[in-house]
Amino acid sequence: QRGQQLSSSIAPELHGLVLDPARLKQVLLNYLSNAIKFGGGGEVRVELRRDGGRALLTVRDHGPGVPDAELDKLFRPFFRGSNAARADGQGLGLAIVKHILTRHRARLLIRSELGKGSTFTVRFQPNDRIMPSRPSSSIDTQSDSSDRLERRKA
């Protein structure tokens, strides 16, 4: 969007992390697209760093935030939050993200504060060695997201 800033920080010591680059690109593009679309025109920050034996991918925006009542629903197929009513999309992006990250044994963390923005963090397992995924268009719509999704209030 016009006037929006994107900043990034990528730690050089992440050479041992082996993941499916095509799927992770899809995750990052979805997170960035949402941060730009709903970020309110402020800075969007992307960070990839090591935290102990884990790699962390964080995307932070300064938009309207997500209401607490909607946090647990964000990764459900076709769910569109109350702040997404006027935005393009079908509500599938974050469901696909959840599917990809579940295959990577990653943990999803969301911090959101109304009026201040949201932070989406992916915590990868230590020393991941993941083979590229098989082509698949299926999403497990029956699985409970609580086992992989941690909700944190800012």
Structure characterization notes:
This protein is α/β, with parallel strands linked by helices and 154 residues long. It has helices at residues 21-38, 68-71, 93-103; strands at 6-10, 44-51, 54-60, 107-113, 117-123, 149-153. Strands 1-2-3-5-4-6 form a six-stranded mixed β-sheet, with helices on one face. Helix 1 (21-38) runs antiparallel to helix 3. It is globular, with a radius of gyration of 15 Å. The protein starts with 5 loop residues before the first strand and ends with a strand.
Overall geometric form? globular
User: What does the main sheet amount to?
Assistant: 6 strands, mixed
Mean pLDDT: 78
Helix/strand-derived class?
A: alpha/beta
Arrangement of strands in the largest sheet: 1-2-3-5-4-6
Helix content: 10-25%
The residue ranges in which pLDDT falls below 50 over 5 or more consecutive positions are 129-154
Number of strands: 6
Radius of gyration: 15 Å
H and E order? EHEEHHEEE
In short, what is this structure?
This protein has 154 residues and is an alpha/beta fold. It contains three helices and six strands. A six-stranded mixed sheet has the order 1-2-3-5-4-6, with helices on one face.
